[in-house]
Structures are given as structure tokens and as C-alpha cells.
Design goal:
globular, binds copper (II) ion
Amino acid sequence: MRTTRSRLAPLAVAALVGLPFLAAAPASADDHGGTELSGTLAELNDSGASGTAWGMLEGNQLHIILESEGLLDGAPHAQHVHIGGTNTCPGADVEGTGPNGELQTSDGVPSYGGVALSLTNEPGMTSGEHALDVTNFPATGSYTYERTIEVDAETAAQIADGNGVVVVHGVDHDGSGTYDGDAKSDLDPALPAEATNPALCGELEVAQMEMPEEGVATGGGGTAGTEHIGLLTMGVLALGLGGLGLAATRRRAGERS
Ligand SMILES: [Cu+2]
């Protein structure tokens, strides 16, 4: 038993030293009770676009970053957080009601629900009523969007539960280089359907904790049971060889004193 303890104690030191580093890894909650969110934006309507979404919700403040590429350049892209329906993106098997089977915005409502937040640029407003504030949306084919938005308590709760779905609109179905065509938008008949049909969709999923909190409480001391092995291994991995060297030094120092 004595032998086991003297071998594992340095590893426990390494694990403890490594813990602050590990705490910085993806987690669902930070010190202030924030909720981290992330999602992949996948194409709808064969838009050819792609992207990612990342968010941090702290209280009623939502910090959100979208990166999109492959959209129609030089045309506004309405973008929202939708909440409702099944809180998901439409599957590939969902038939659109557009003239050639295009998926219109309303076709996806059973999946992603209505518009909860409008992801406008400043000074655009961000409530659902501003869903078609076309002058304040990104208007390039590729862009990074970042804004901190104050949301109401109900919206915050829904997003914290992983129910938010990001939808980016605007698809150049006929490849003409602009929003045109005879089909009218299901949201506003003054706009072509191309201007509002969904191009990208991604579910804002809550990031998962990777380190159980009880691991912090049980990581110290010389009671090296098997339940600590995973923790010890992670601590050593985080520190790398440098950490092992430090542990070995401390062991020698400890043996002399
Ligand atoms: Cu939308």
C-alpha cells in the first residue's frame, strides 16, 4: 500500500495542477452561470451555403456569433433565432410548397417554430417583429456576425434548454445573381420568394460539461482508488511531459525531507 501511494501521489499533484487548465475546456456553465451554445449551420434548399453558430447566454444577455459562407453575395440575408415547433431543423424529406418544391419559410415552422429574435446589425432592433428589417441584415455571401442581445426571460429559458434554432434566409434558386423570379415570399408578397426562403439552419445545442464537479473534490490526497484513475490520466495529459517532470521533482524533494 505504501508503494502504491508513493507512486500515485505525484500524479495526484499533476492532476490538481492541471485542473484549472481543464476547467477552461468547453463547459455548459461558467462561473457566472452562463450557458454555452453551439451549432452547425447546414444548407436548406440546396443553397450550397454552410456555417457555424456559437453562443453564450448569461442571464438575459445572449452573445452570439455566426459564421456563414456560400450565400448569395450582395443580397440581404435575414437571420433569426427561431423557437417553437419541434425546435429542430427541417429534415431533407420535408417537401416545400414553393413552385418547384422549394422550401418556404412557413414550410419549416412545424420544425423550427416562429421568429423569436432577429439577428440584425446595429442599430437594428432584435425582436421578432423586425424579422424582415432587410436594411440591417448582413448582405454578403460570406460573413461573421457577432452581437450581444438582450432577450426576455422566456426566450432565455428556451435557449438555455437548447430550443433555439438559427435560420439564415435568402436563396438564389435560379442562379441569376439576385433575388428575382415570379414566386412571391410567403412572409411578404412584396418580396421575391428567393429573398426569404431558408438557406441555412442550425440547432443551438447546449455544450456539455466534460469534467464532473466531484472530480475536483476527490482529486487530492493519497487515497488512490480506481475512481481517480480517469481524473489522474486527464491531469497528466493536460500537463504533458513537463507536468511529469514537475511531479518527479517534487517526489524527490519529498523523499529527502
Ligand atoms: Cu428566420
